[in-house]
Amino acid sequence: MKSQDITPKDSENNTIIENKELSLLAALVPVFALVGMLFYNVFYVFGDDALSGSNQFILILGAAVAAVVGFYNKVSYKKMLDEVAENVKSTTGALLILLMVGSLAGTWLISGVIPSMIYYGLQILNPTIFLAACVVICAIISIATGSSWTTSATVGIALIGIGNTLGISPGMTAGAVLSGGYFGDKMSPLSDTTNLAPAMAGSELFDHIKYMAYTTVPTIIITLIIFLIIGLNIDTTGTPDISDKLQAIESAFNISPWLFSVPILVIVLIVKKTPPLIALLIGTLLGAIAAIIAQPEIIKAIAQTDTLSFEAAYKGVMKAITVDTAVETTSVELNDLFTSGGMNGMLGTIWLIVCAMVFGGVMDAIGALSRISKALLSLATTTFGLFASTVASCLALNVTASDQYLALVVPGKMFKKAYKDRGLAPENLSRTLEDSGTVTSVLVPWNTCGAYQSGVLGVSVADYFVYAFFNWISPFMTLLFAAFSIKIKQLRTP
């Protein structure tokens, strides 16, 4: 093949480079190699620790395999490197948003915003509606923290214990915990997957969250109704005691409903269509001001000083924004909840995105993504078929690659052009990635999410699978919307 057969990428139109002579089998070789290496890396070697770096390097190795295919087809090294640079450049906004999300999480922790959400959320427990209350509590906490993992490892464990004292099956409680936890994980701008999906699809963060609400809200309502019906038809014994948890939060933070003014102001900015970076920066600064006013003792402890001076306030806030911060309470179960990695905590996800862009860039340059997209479009002759193919790919990667991040990254990169060619806005893809990739990961026992949640909650995946209603209803909901063309956003023509 000659190099002039390759059409260079038009950066303005963001079209994918097309290698006219690349066969479908050759285009799929790097994908099969990547999935195989990821499966081995996660399932046989690193398990939950794979995201700390080894998965990222596997993506680089996948890019190397793609480069070999490219060299065989006379694609120059410079062309591949240029395409990688373009791909990384396209994620600049998403990477900056991730850093801002980390900084906001830090100031909202030390200001008492997140602890206040948890404090008031825990007080809605009631034996009759315990399961539905678990969903609501975990949803609130997961939205506040942006992490279903942290929610399960802290409040989730406590709720499992409370459920046991009420005579409720651990599988039921775990299903309710995970349903609420993953709802919050999907909808929180603090969540790494909520930032990762639009970064892969090419949509904006808050547009993605807004568009995702169309399928997510009906799903969580159905989930709550099911748990209410279950709760009204099972016998409970005893009364849940959360007084020690509430006392632990009160002893560590100055809890006040006034602290909710910070997230409310940020929500107002989002509704007013303020650019995400600006909204998150303002939210971070408001959290910092609230921390100095409402939590002076925590500021002094972080700054390691006995007096609250300007220097101490500056040091305490900057540490919360940039590095790991923890506020200890008298409750061991809650201590993990009151930690934040700041900007530093987001570097793992940023690293993953950059390495994914390396893989995707090389795949673009050699024409592999164009070839795969054409094959997918030929199979998916309808819009519903395209959505179904996306769902199937996400589910397949959750099973084979055993990692929810890769279930977003690989299909997101592969299907991006296919959605564009059909005139569909990128929000369709980012929503489908979350509806099928993020939430179903916990339903696979050998997936990092399934293994983690099962281990933390002490409940096997088989026991909670059927009760994790939100998680397995979500992909059906997104397919239902596609089948009836409900809220399928079209690509705007220039």
| Helix and strand pattern | EEHHHHHHHHHHHHHHHEHEHHHHHHHH
What is the overall shape? globular
Radius of gyration: 23 Å
Q: How many structurally independent domains?
A: 2
Strand order of the largest sheet: 1-2
Mean pLDDT over the residues: 83
- Structural class based on helices, strands and sheet pairing: mainly alpha
What is the distance, rounded to the nearest whole angstrom, between the alpha carbons of the first and last residues?
35 Å
Total beta strands = 4
Low-confidence stretches: 1-16
- How much helix is in the residues? over 70%
Give me the number of helical elements: 24
**What is the beta-strand fraction?**
under 5%
Task: Specify the biggest β-sheet.
Answer: 2 strands, antiparallel
Oligomeric state of this protein: single chain
Keywords summarizing the entry:
single chain, 494 residues, mainly alpha, 2 domains, two-stranded antiparallel ribbon, two-stranded antiparallel sheet, 4 strands, 71% helix, disordered N terminus
Q: Mind sketching the topology for me?
A:
Blueprint (H helix, E strand, L loop, with lengths): L5 E2 L10 E2 L4 H23 L7 H19 L4 H14 L1 H19 L2 H10 L7 H16 L2 H18 L4 H18 L4 H10 L3 H28 L10 H10 L8 H11 L4 H19 L1 H8 L6 H13 L2 E2 L5 H4 L3 E2 L6 H19 L2 H12 L3 H18 L3 H18 L4 H13 L9 H10 L3 H4 L4 H15 L11
Antiparallel strand pairs: 1-2, 3-4
Helix pairs in contact: 1-2, 1-18, 2-17, 3-17, 4-9, 4-13, 4-15, 5-6, 5-11, 6-7, 6-8, 6-10, 7-8, 7-22, 8-10, 9-20, 9-21, 10-21, 10-24, 12-13, 14-15, 17-20, 18-20, 19-20, 19-21, 19-24, 20-21, 21-24
